[in-house]
């Protein structure tokens, strides 16, 4: 059974003029212990979706269910204890830690909030968490600025781990980091999924990394999921032209001197999305019907669905297959 | 072979620390870039790659000391006055920095920022300058370029601002473009467009490009030659194809191993982190992080040796190590 | 993305494996905090400010021992010029001006401090409440600050004092009413901006209530700027209090209050010493607190400095 499911989630921000539908109806399911990659260009709504998944913003429509209970958007009251096992890691580790407090105190706070023992046990427990993310337990007396970017992101992961999470939503967790630190933090998150069964929603604009770490990948365009499937399948045989365009735009470090393929045009204004298929103005395979017909996700093979007129339904007409792996 | 457009030799940059000691940030770097050529500089942060670029532009932080020689089209830049350097920056060399927020003036319209150089340095008329600016915006894929000219930087998203910054750097019609992590903050689709634009400019206009990035994929697709830097020194250089297909220096190997390869194998990050300024290890600066380090590595600074025509490496442990198999 | 090359990295003050140079760039805030605790005392203006303030505090404490005469007693003929007997001369009632100036510090300095503390507390609480609750609470409190800001401070203070009745206590109350809104605005702005920051969101996700994040995470962010604002405001408070007394709305005779003494001096303009010395006393206190406040503001990062000015 899925640990986290989103059903028809929409997130709308009141803009000047007309409201912006950043997430325009997303169905997604996350299984325990899997790494789900979420990719798309900036402005595709992946960060808004991440915030809706953990309850930092209230969806304007649809529901998010975590561990059989609906996720409530945060208000002034403390988050219900059961939902504290749904955690988030932010993009910028410089701002996601309080610069004025020792990292040990911040992790100890998280432990206390999770009900993990009294004040006396804190240093040992904090040290254990730091060790789990590959840092020296003695570092708990330091302030965030005394760490490198990659180390800070690991501290942020350790703090999330204090809540004993079953799902971590990681919103661009490595894009603010140096190349070797990227690999270290990505490996850490994947390790949590592999060895401890923590489900990880790995959001990134770096497809090469997602290809490496994700079991399944969902591709977002302008607020909707246009394709979802096992990472290998999706990479080898993308069914949506947008997925193919993204993959072809990734430069490969093979020394071949091959320029990555271009995808003309820009992501349209989400306040005024194109009619029909949202991708049709940029699509290299556009057909006359694309501007009038809005495609829904249709099953290509078990666990692999795409929303394109050229990807006809090959599976059972079951809406719930969206996002559910084989 | 014609003379290089940019020729950096024996470049040393030292930065003042708080205590007043001068710390080497760049320690004897040689580079050449020919017209129409793209030279890639790879390395982690702190490798001195940005300082090398800033030295070339005469934009080092206050108190920095520079030795060596930087020649642009035969003219020594290090002895120029500030005023002369400004004119060089305006006409011959342009820079694209990673952070688009600092590259554009917040209070001036896009048109003003893109046409000023053309009108003042190249004597282009107002209308022709506007046409050229709109064309540049179109090339960096700003939608509705004519309307965009009348707008101000804050009206654009970060990615768009970076593209406008690139357009404004190109607007001066420089012969050399120095790009420091120009596409790191951008989506792959936009990145692809910009790499193609740079490639076209170097072929059509003979633009020389010095591109600095940690992204070996970007360098692989556009750079003719690669220079890998570590702790202020060049550790390996050669044609891009050679360096990426048969890396010789353990650091280059490390960078390649840290990349996602698409298989199920985990990325293997280089252990540890690059040394801080002023805390560079003795001998080979990479030896504390190097898997193939020997006792001698801590003692002597390895020389950058030619290991094949046009191919340099600074690792004495096994300069003719078996060629690395490339997984693609 | 990689950080910038190590422009800002200090030589080797960060021990251990602080290894990626970019890390230090984010340390600006922390550095400002360190500057605040260490280097102001090396700045001459701050030192002068501190010395003058310390001197006035000592004078206030030991006024009975320092003052040569009873400040309220008529000890000599009126309007004597400064002399060895009466260093600052005597006033229009024959009281010793030096003694009155020294005793005046027992009124002006503590009252100004009290005034600033009250305004800080009221403003901070109301500002935090506005920022925390938002909606109509925020709207209500902010309209109130608009209302106060709509009048020139001294005029409003005069009107309030006049309504409550002249006297030092009412003058202080009136000035609290006039000065709290600037604290409320600054605090509300800081609460609002900090509330949305990632580390607060992270605390909330871990189970901290909004109130708890306000106490643990927001408070340290707010304290620095409020401290600066308060320090800058003490001088202002001394000036306003003296101003009200000068206008006859604050201290009532025969209390030795500097503003009232300047007022009396203005009535006997030819006897310059009656008004000049209490005036100088006001000047030194105001300048001293401004020096101190400016130094604190410079030591804090430019962001907060901007927030204060805005």
TrEMBL record, chain A:
Q: Where is the ABC transporter domain?
A: 4-247
Q: What protein family is recorded?
A: Belongs to the ABC transporter superfamily.
Read off the Gene3D superfamilies from this record: P-loop containing nucleotide triphosphate hydrolases
User: Which GO molecular function annotation, any one, does this entry have?
Assistant: ATP binding
Q: Does the keyword Transcription regulation apply?
A: no
| Sorted UniProt keywords | ATP-binding, Nucleotide-binding, Transport
The UniProt entry, under InterPro entries, shows: AAA+_ATPase (IPR003593), ABC_transp_ATP-bind (IPR050319), ABC_transporter-like_ATP-bd (IPR003439), ABC_transporter-like_CS (IPR017871), Oligopep_ABC_C (IPR013563), P-loop_NTPase (IPR027417)
This protein is called: ABC transporter ATP-binding protein
Q: Give the taxonomic lineage as stored in the record.
A: Bacteria, Bacillati, Actinomycetota, Actinomycetes, Geodermatophilales
The organism of origin for this protein: Klenkia terrae
TrEMBL record, chain B:
The record's subcellular locations are: Cell membrane
Per its record, what are the GO molecular function terms? ATP binding
Whether Iron counts among this entry's keywords is no
Coiled coil (UniProt feature): none
Note whether Nucleotide-binding occurs among the keywords.
yes
Entry keywords, A to Z: ATP-binding, Cell membrane, Membrane, Nucleotide-binding, Transport
Record membrane topology:
Peripheral membrane protein
Name the domain of life this protein comes from. Bacteria
The residues covered by the ABC transporter domain are: 11-256
Its chief place of residence is membrane
Please name the CDD domains in this protein's record: ABC_NikE_OppD_transporters
What SUPFAM superfamilies does this protein map onto?
Answer: P-loop containing nucleoside triphosphate hydrolases
Q: Which family does it belong to?
A: Belongs to the ABC transporter superfamily.
Q: What is this protein called?
A: ABC transporter ATP-binding protein
Recorded source organism is: Klenkia terrae
TrEMBL record, chain C:
For this protein, the record's Pfam families field holds:
BPD_transp_1, OppC_N
Keywords for this protein: Cell membrane, Membrane, Transmembrane, Transmembrane helix, Transport
Location relative to the cell = Cell membrane
- Identify its membrane topology class: Multi-pass membrane protein
Q: Residues in domain ABC transmembrane type-1? A: 109-293
* Domain of life from the UniProt record: Bacteria
Main site of residence? membrane
Q: Where are the transmembrane segments?
A: 45-67, 111-134, 146-166, 172-191, 222-251, 271-293
- By its UniProt entry, which CDD domains does this protein fall under? TM_PBP2
Entry similarity comment: Belongs to the binding-protein-dependent transport system permease family.
Among PANTHER family, the record links this protein to: D,D-DIPEPTIDE TRANSPORT SYSTEM PERMEASE PROTEIN DDPC-RELATED (PTHR43386:SF1), OLIGOPEPTIDE TRANSPORT SYSTEM PERMEASE PROTEIN APPC (PTHR43386)
What is the protein named?
ABC transporter permease
Species annotation: Klenkia terrae
């Amino acid at each position: 059974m899925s640990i986290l499911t989103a059903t028809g989630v929409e997130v709308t921000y009141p803009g000047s003029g007309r409201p912006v539908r950043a997430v325009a109806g997303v169905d997604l399911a996350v299984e325990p212990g899997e790494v789900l990659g979420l990719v798309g260009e900036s402005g595709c709504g992946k960060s808004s979706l991440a915030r809706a998944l953990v309850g930092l913003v209230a969806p304007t429509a649809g529901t998010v269910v975590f561990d059989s209970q609906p996720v409530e958007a945060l208000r002034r009251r403390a988050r219900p204890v059961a939902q504290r096992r749904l955690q988030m890691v932010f993009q910028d580790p410089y701002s996601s830690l309080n610069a004025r407090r020792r990292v040990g105190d911040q992790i100890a706070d998280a432990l206390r909030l999770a009900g993990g023992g009294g004040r006396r046990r804190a240093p040992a427990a904090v040290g254990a968490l730091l060790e789990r993310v590959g840092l020296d337990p003695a570092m708990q007396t330091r302030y965030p600025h005394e760490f490198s970017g990659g180390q800070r992101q690991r501290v942020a992961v350790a703090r999330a781990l204090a809540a004993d999470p079953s799902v971590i939503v990681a919103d661009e967790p490595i894009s603010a980091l140096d190349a070797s630190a990227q690999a270290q933090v990505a490996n850490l998150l994947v390790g949590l999924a592999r060895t401890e069964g923590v489900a990880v929603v790995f959001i990134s604009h770096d497809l090469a990394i997602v290809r490496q770490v994700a079991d399944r990948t969902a591709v977002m365009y302008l607020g909707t999921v246009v394709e979802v499937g096992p990472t290998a399948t999706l990479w080898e045989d993308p069914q949506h032209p947008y997925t193919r365009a993204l993959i072809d735009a990734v430069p490969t470090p093979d020394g071949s001197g091959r320029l990555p393929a271009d995808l003309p045009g820009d992501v349209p204004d989400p306040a005024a999305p194109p009619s029909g298929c949202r991708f049709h103005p940029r699509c290299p395979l556009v057909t006359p019907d694309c501007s009038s017909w809005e495609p829904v996700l249709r099953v290509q093979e078990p666990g692999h669905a795409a929303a394109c007129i050229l990807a006809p339904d090959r599976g059972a007409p079951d809406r719930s297959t969206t996002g559910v792996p084989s | 072979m014609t003379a290089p457009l940019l020729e950096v030799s024996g470049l040393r940059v030292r930065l003042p620390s708080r205590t007043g000691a001068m710390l080497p940030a760049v320690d004897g770097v040689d580079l050449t870039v020919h017209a129409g050529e793209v030279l890639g500089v790879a390395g982690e942060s702190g490798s001195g790659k940005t300082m090398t670029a800033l030295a070339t532009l005469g934009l080092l932080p206050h108190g920095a000391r520079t030795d060596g020689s930087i020649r642009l089209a035969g003219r020594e830049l290090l002895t120029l006055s500030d005023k002369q350097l400004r004119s060089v920056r305006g006409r011959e060399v342009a820079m694209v920095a990673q952070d688009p927020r600092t590259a554009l003036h917040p209070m001036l319209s896009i048109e003003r920022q893109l046409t000023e150089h053309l009108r003042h340095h190249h004597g282009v008329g107002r209308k022709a300058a506007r046409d050229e600016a709109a064309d540049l915006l179109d090339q960096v894929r700003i939608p509705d370029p004519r309307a965009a000219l009348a707008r101000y930087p804050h009206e654009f998203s970060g990615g768009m601002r970076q593209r406008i910054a690139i357009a404004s750097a190109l607007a001066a019609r420089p012969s050399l473009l120095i790009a420091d992590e120009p596409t790191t903050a951008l989506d792959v689709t936009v990145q692809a467009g910009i790499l193609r634009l740079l490639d076209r400019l170097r072929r059509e206009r003979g633009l020389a490009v010095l591109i600095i990035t940690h992204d070996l994929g970007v360098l692989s697709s556009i750079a003719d030659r690669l220079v890998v830097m570590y702790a202020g020194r060049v550790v390996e250089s050669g044609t891009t194809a050679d360096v990426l297909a048969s890396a010789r220096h353990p650091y280059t190997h490390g960078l390649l191993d840290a990349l996602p390869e698409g298989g199920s194998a985990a990325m293997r990050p280089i252990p540890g982190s690059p040394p801080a300024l002023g805390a560079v290890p003795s001998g080979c600066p990479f030896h504390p992080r190097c898997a193939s380090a020997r006792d001698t590595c801590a003692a002597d600074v390895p020389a950058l040796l030619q290991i094949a025509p046009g191919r340099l490496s600074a690792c004495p442990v096994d300069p003719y190590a078996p060629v690395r198999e490339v997984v693609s | 993305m990689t950080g910038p090359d190590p422009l800002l990295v200090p030589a080797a003050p960060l021990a251990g494996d602080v290894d990626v140079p970019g890390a230090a760039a984010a340390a600006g805030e922390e550095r400002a905090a360190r500057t605040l605790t260490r280097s102001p005392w090396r700045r001459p203006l701050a030192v002068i400010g501190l010395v003058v303030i310390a001197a006035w505090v000592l004078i206030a404490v030991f006024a009975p021992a320092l003052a040569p005469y009873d400040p309220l007693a008529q000890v000599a003929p009126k309007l004597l010029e400064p002399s060895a007997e009466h260093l600052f001369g005597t006033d229009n009632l024959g009281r010793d001006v030096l003694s009155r100036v020294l005793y005046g510090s027992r009124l002006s300095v503590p009252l100004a401090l009290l005034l600033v503390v009250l305004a800080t507390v009221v403003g901070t609480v109301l500002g935090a409440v506005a920022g925390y609750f938002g909606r109509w609470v925020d709207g209500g409190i902010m309209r109130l600050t608009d209302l106060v800001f709509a009048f020139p401070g001294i005029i409003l203070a005069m009107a309030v004092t006049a309504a409550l009745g002249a006297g030092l206590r009412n003058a202080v109350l009136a000035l609290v009413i006039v000065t709290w809104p600037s604290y409320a605005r600054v605090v509300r702005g800081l609460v609002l901006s900090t509330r949305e920051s990632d580390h607060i969101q992270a605390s909330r996700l871990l189970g901290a209530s909004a109130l708890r994040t306000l106490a643990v995470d927001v408070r340290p962010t707010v304290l620095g700027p409020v401290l600066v604002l308060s320090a800058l405001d003490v001088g202002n408070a001394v000036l306003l209090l003296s101003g009200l007394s000068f206008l006859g709305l604050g201290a009532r005779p025969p209390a030795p209050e500097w503003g009232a003494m300047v007022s009396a001096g203005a009535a006997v303009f030819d006897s310059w010493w009656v008004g000049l010395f209490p005036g100088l006393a006001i000047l030194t206190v105001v300048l001293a607190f401004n020096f101190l406040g400016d130094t604190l503001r410079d030591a804090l990062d430019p962001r907060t400095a901007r927030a204060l000015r805005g």
